[in-house]
Amino acid sequence: MRIVETNSPEETWELAAKLADELEAGTVIALHGDLGAGKTCFIQGFAAALGIDEPITSPTYTLIGEYEGRLPLHHLDLYRLSGPEEALGLGLDEYFDVNGITAIEWAERAEGLLPENLLHIEIKADEQAGARTFRIFREGDA
């Protein structure tokens, strides 16, 4: 398990870029955190590190964004789903692609449908200090 604190969006992007360099195709990232914690900011930095120059926005209304870079990036935002029952019809397993990386915001809403060996990233925001604490671990490491 790794715990990292960032104090600006730029530092969050730097952390995301380091992870993008470390991760292999086929990785599924489960992002956890309250609204405004920094999940989308993290994905923006991750995408930039993969060479994706399209703007990355929260796909809350479309649920899934697909981007081509050094590795394909599938960005899923399950915020609008009430739980795993609603996620069943999305064909999530199609995005657990050995050729790309899948990053899922609000991943807990698809509990039981996600692959083993997820990379979890829990983000806690301290709005007063402007800091974010990232807890990064694999399934079973918690």
Which helices and strands appear, and what pairs or packs with what?
Blueprint lengths: L1 E5 L2 H14 L5 E5 L6 H11 L14 E4 L5 E5 L6 H4 L13 E5 L13 E8 L4 E8 L4
Radius of gyration from CA coordinates: 14 Å
State the assembly state of the protein chains.
single chain
Which term fits the overall shape? globular
| CATH fold-level name | Rossmann fold
Query: Low-confidence parts, pLDDT < 50 over ≥5 residues?
Result: none
State the helix count.
Answer: 3
Q: Tally the beta strands.
A: 7
How many structural units, i.e. domains?
1
* Widest beta sheet: strand line-up: 1-7-6-2-5-4-3
Summarize the structure.
This protein is an alpha/beta fold and 142 residues long.
What does this structure look like?
The protein is α/β, with parallel strands linked by helices. 20% of the residues lie in helices and 28% in strands. α1 crosses α2. The longest helix has 14 residues. The mean pLDDT is 88.
Features:
142 residues, alpha/beta, Rossmann fold, globular
